């Protein structure tokens, strides 16, 4: 058994600040004892304490340790499409996203993109992600193969559509059923459970009833598969879906009537929801992935966080790369904060603790991983990112002068970037960056 003790200035949110208030922020200088990837001991250090630990010790105290980020909505085939500005959703899909997604028909290209994608997540400190895969089964295989090697916790699936995109991205029910079943067989539960399968119709606009029926069959072929899709992102999208599904009560009903909305479902965006939809989401235990930089970039709208919280809907954060502005969950947290400020009385005033929770614990719970990851408590996996801003950088200076812990966290969200992430671990394994060598301390 390998055991390492990490000494760190750690910030995390073991409880939900939307319920417990900003006191949910835990800021401590700690010794975290990690055995085979699990945190088995956690002790607050006494200031000035000298002989802090014995055995293998890694001293991270010149930086800040956060729980690994959890990205609940990110598109693997869109890494190279990041930065397409100036278009609403459907134009952006046609001009930026879909031409790039079509290139993943080439397995060699898909492998390169999969490596760039996983590397981008790890370098940003993201340790767990719910990933929108590719329309091509071979590219989904490439993603899972690379994810198995990279060490990240990835839930993903083949994206299914059979209309209104471009012909090379369309499938048919028989192919979708066969490819989906084979991918589930190969990847769901692989790598010790780090890899899981999510049934993924792109959105109801591009998915006929026949494909949604295949999704229903695939999802219910086992009792622990995941479901993800898009919902209520853009007015043109919503009105087209209403025309395509005249007998459905609302957008959510297009999924719900096929048994696709439950506690293992995550729906991205929901910028323009109806009250009935919020009630149904809450009752079913499904989560919403709020993607604030994407919503701003595409002009999709102002996410009504207050209405979600009032209805009791779980909300977590997603980058929505490539409509979103990169892999940084710190940036998403900051943009979520700005947006709620702009909403004035209708917005939710978010504290730094809320931002950290939305980027970590909320995502972990939305993905059913709340017992394993999301904070740095005993029993959790050592999934963490270590921020060490370059000496003299604005973040470095800001952290030195921050009057308190919550202020330090605010500065991290405002100023932190992937360039400040010195190391990222998943289950105690380094997946990006470099950590100091351990030293052996004898009693
Ligand atoms: N709706 C359907 N496909 C997409 C996508 O790729 N990105 C976003 N933001 N919304 C979508
Ligand atoms: Zn998306």
UniProtKB/TrEMBL annotation:
GO-annotated molecular function: guanine deaminase activity; zinc ion binding
Short name of any one Pfam family annotated for the protein: Amidohydro_1
Lineage, broadest ranks: Bacteria, Bacillati, Actinomycetota, Actinomycetes, Micrococcales
* Catalytic reactions of this protein: guanine + H2O + H(+) = xanthine + NH4(+)
Q: Name any Gene Ontology BP term.
A: guanine catabolic process
Natural source organism: Serinicoccus hydrothermalis
Keyword Zinc in record: yes
The residue ranges crossing the membrane are none
Origin superkingdom = Bacteria
Q: What is this protein called?
A: Guanine deaminase
Q: What is its EC number?
A: 3.5.4.3
InterPro entries on file: Amidohydro-rel, Guanine_deaminase, Metal-dep_hydrolase_composite, Metal_Hydrolase, Metallo-dep_hydrolases
General function of this protein? Catalyzes the hydrolytic deamination of guanine, producing xanthine and ammonia.
The family assignment reads:
Belongs to the metallo-dependent hydrolases superfamily. ATZ/TRZ family.
Q: What does the record note about the cofactor?
A: Binds 1 zinc ion per subunit.
């Amino acid at each position: 058994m390998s055991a390492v003790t990490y000494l760190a200035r750690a910030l995390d949110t073991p409880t939900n600040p939307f319920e417990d208030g900003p006191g949910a922020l835990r800021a401590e200088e700690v010794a975290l004892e990690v055995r085979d990837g699990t945190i088995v001991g956690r002790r607050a250090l006494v200031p000035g304490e000298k002989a802090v630990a014995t055995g293998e010790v890694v001293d991270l105290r010149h930086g800040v340790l956060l729980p690994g980020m959890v990205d609940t909505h990110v598109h693997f085939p869109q890494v190279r499409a990041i930065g397409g500005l100036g278009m609403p959703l459907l134009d952006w899909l046609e001009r930026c996203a879909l031409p790039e997604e079509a290139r993943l028909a080439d397995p060699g290209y898909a492998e390169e993109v999969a490596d760039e994608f996983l590397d981008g997540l790890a370098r940003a400190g993201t340790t767990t992600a719910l990933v929108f895969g590719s329309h091509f089964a071979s590219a989904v295989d490439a993603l899972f193969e690379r994810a198995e090697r990279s060490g990240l916790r990835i839930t993903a699936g083949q994206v299914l559509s059979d209309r209104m995109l471009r012909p090379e991205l369309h499938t048919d029910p028989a192919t979708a059923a066969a490819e989906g079943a084979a991918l589930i067989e190969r990847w769901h539960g692989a790598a010790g459970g780090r890899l899981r399968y999510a049934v993924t119709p792109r959105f109801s606009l591009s998915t006929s009833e026949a494909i949604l029926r295949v999704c229903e069959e695939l999802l219910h072929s086992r009792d622990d598969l995941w479901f993800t899709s898009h919902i209520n992102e853009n007015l043109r999208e919503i009105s087209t879906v209403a025309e395509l599904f005249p007998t459905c009560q609302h957008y959510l009903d297009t999924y719900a009537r096929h048994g696709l909305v439950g506690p293992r479902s995550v729906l991205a965006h929901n910028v323009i929801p109806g009250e009935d939809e919020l009630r149904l989401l809450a009752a079913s235990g499904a989560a919403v992935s709020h993607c604030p930089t994407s919503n701003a970039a595409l002009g999709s709208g102002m996410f009504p966080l207050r209405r979600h919280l009032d209805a009791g809907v779980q909300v977590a954060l997603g980058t929505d790369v490539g409509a979103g502005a990169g892999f940084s969950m710190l940036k998403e947290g900051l943009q979520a904060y700005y947006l709620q400020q702009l909403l004035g009385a209708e917005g939710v005033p978010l504290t730094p603790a809320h931002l950290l929770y939305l980027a970590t614990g909320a995502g972990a719970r939305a993905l059913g991983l709340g017992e394993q990851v999301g904070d740095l408590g005993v029993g959790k996996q050592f999934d963490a990112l270590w921020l060490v801003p370059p000496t003299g950088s604005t973040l470095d200076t800001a952290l030195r002068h921050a009057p308190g812990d919550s202020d330090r966290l605010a500065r991290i969200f405002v100023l932190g970037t992937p360039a400040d992430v010195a190391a990222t671990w998943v289950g105690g394994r380094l997946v990006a960056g470099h950590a100091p060598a351990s030293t052996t301390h004898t009693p």
